[in-house]
UniProtKB/TrEMBL annotation:
CDD domains assigned to the protein according to its UniProt record, in alphabetical order: GGDEF
PROSITE patterns linked to this entry: GGDEF (PS50887)
Gene3D superfamilies: 3.30.450.40, 3.30.70.270
Protein name in the entry: GGDEF domain-containing protein
GO (cellular component) term, any one: plasma membrane
Pfam families: GAF, GGDEF
Superkingdom of origin organism: Bacteria
GO molecular function term, any single one: diguanylate cyclase activity
InterPro entries referenced in this protein's UniProt entry, alphabetically: Diguanylate_Cyclase (IPR050469), GAF (IPR003018), GAF-like_dom_sf (IPR029016), GGDEF_dom (IPR000160), Nucleotide_cyclase (IPR029787), Rev_trsase/Diguanyl_cyclase (IPR043128)
């Protein structure tokens, strides 16, 4: 019998073999480390770091799942590859990721392999290799195998552990899945322990649909910010297109749109530490910043909204008010000034869209498409998906359309990778042009008044090829 606390000299000295760390001893060590965690940040860091050792993985991410959206809170080791950096900063909707949907609804772990046991690419449509979207993601980052296990807190899926192996490092097995599920259970216990206070605050102060703060919290934060004497900014936001989405697609789609808005504004807040994002009510949202310059807030808003366009052709109109401009005012007055600016921006956008009639000359349209599309591809982050998204958004706006999508064809099935569009609440006849290159498809919205001759189609096809091939 081994006494509790007994350990070999090597273990006491911290020299643990890789074989030991992927077994029971590794899980026991993870349990001890998680038991010492006192904050949620401690839990996520300990889980991702121990996950690399326990699962013999190249990289492990600790993810939060809210409103059917997964985002990475911590990843070990931190990536330097621009393709991975883009993925780490992205959020993933269950509507676009079948494996994530199954993980949330069925609490089911999953594995996917882009290569076989000999390191050769798996055959297209090989069901035993796993979900096609996850395989495409592995190919995107030159990885060989992935697994995910749900983190279940208080009977609900709170998050997930996501791990990848590089090509040549072998494939995840059922034993690895079992270890990941045990690690996820240990992490869930730690989360439930350290996150109790946060859960209470969530019940009292957060909007149940989006998870953002509510109006009462926003008012309180604004009052405290003004009392501090530091520059305070309030950004009032309104969702353009919510009524159209509710009328045409139903209120479930409208709720999904509001959740996406919440996710975008949460990203703005994360980029401006100390910022509070809140849903004021209906389709009205607000951001309250303290100690941040007006120019910094405006630039962060513009950059984030451009990077994460809303689905279904919806958009965010916003107005910004700052004490650096207004001088000493009450919180109510600052909210009102931001609201006035928001309505001014909304009306200006509507006027611009109303007069922006696409040209009917195919040659001129093709030239515009090439200039705008090339610039969008050049400015995009590296990787096929961000380049195609940038192209789709730029060309759709040039062609007078609203909605666009990037999809992947796997056999007879198409999976949506990204959707978005330029803001448009105006009723106009729309059509869709589909561009293809290999397994990638780009759906572009086109106004009925835009030219669509052969020269335009050739320009669009060429740009799509440049976006895909240039990312390789």
């Amino acid at each position: 019998m081994t006494r509790r606390g007994a350990a070999s000299p090597g273990a006491r000295a911290g020299r643990r073999s890789a074989a030991a760390l992927v077994g029971v001893r590794g899980l026991a060590l993870a349990a001890h480390r998680l038991d010492r965690c006192r904050t949620l940040e401690d839990v996520q860091q300990a889980t991702s770091r121990m996950g690399v050792e326990v699962l013999a993985a190249r990289r492990v991410a600790f993810c939060r799942i809210e409103q059917d959206t997964s985002r990475i809170l911590d990843i070990t080791p931190q990536p330097t590859d621009p393709r991975l950096l883009w993925m780490v900063r992205s959020s993933y909707r269950a509507d676009d990721r079948p494996a994530l949907r199954a993980l949330i609804s069925d609490r089911a772990s999953w594995v996917a392999h882009a290569v076989d046991i000999e390191g050769q690419p798996v055959a297209e449509g090989d069901e035993e290799a796993g979900d096609a979207v996850e395989i495409a993601t592995l190919n995107e980052v030159d990885a060989g195998s992935a697994l995910a296990a749900p983190i279940i807190v208080n009977g609900a899926v709170w998050g997930q552990i996501y791990a990848v192996k590089a090509v040549g490092d072998g494939l995840f097995t059922v034993d690895d899945v079992a270890r990941a599920e045990v690690l996820a259970a240990l992490a869930a216990g730690a989360v439930a322990r350290v996150d109790l206070e946060d859960q209470v605050r969530h019940l009292v102060a957060d909007d149940p649909l989006t998870g953002l703060a509510n109006r009462r919290v926003a008012d309180s934060v604004a009052e405290s910010a003004l009392e501090s004497g530091d520059e305070t900014c309030i950004v009032m936001c309104d969702v353009d297109g919510l009524k159209r989405v509710n009328d045409q697609m139903g209120h479930d789609a409208g709720d999904d749109l509001l959740r996406t808005v919440g996710d975008v504004l949460r990203r703005v807040a994360d980029s401006l530490p100390g910022t509070t994002a809140a849903r004021i009510g209906g389709d009205e949202f607000a951001l309250v910043t303290v100690g941040r310059k007006r120019a910094e807030v405006a630039e962060t808003m513009a950059t984030t909204l451009a990077m994460y366009p809303l689905p279904h052709g919806a958009a965010i109109s916003y107005g910004l008010a700052s004490t650096a401009v207004s001088g000493p005012v009450s919180a109510r007055q600052l909210f009102r000034r931001a609201d006035v600016e928001q309505y001014r921006a909304k009306r200006a956008r509507a006027r611009r869209l109303k007069v922006a009639t696409p040209t009917a000359d195919p040659a001129v349209t093709a030239e515009r498409v090439v200039v705008v599309g090339s610039a969008a591809i050049a400015a995009a982050q590296s990787g096929v998906v961000p380049r195609l998204c940038a192209l789709a958004a730029a060309v759709t706006e040039t062609m007078g359309g609203s909605a666009w999508a990037v999809l992947m064809q796997r056999g007879d099935e198409r999976s949506a990778i990204a959707r978005g569009g330029s803001p448009s609440d105006l009723e106009r006849d729309q059509s869709t042009t589909t561009l293809e290159h290999g397994p990638w498809l780009v759906e572009i919205g086109v106004s009925s008044t835009a030219a669509e001759g052969g020269v335009v189609k050739s320009a669009l096809d060429a740009l799509t090829a440049v976006a895909v091939m240039g990312a390789s």
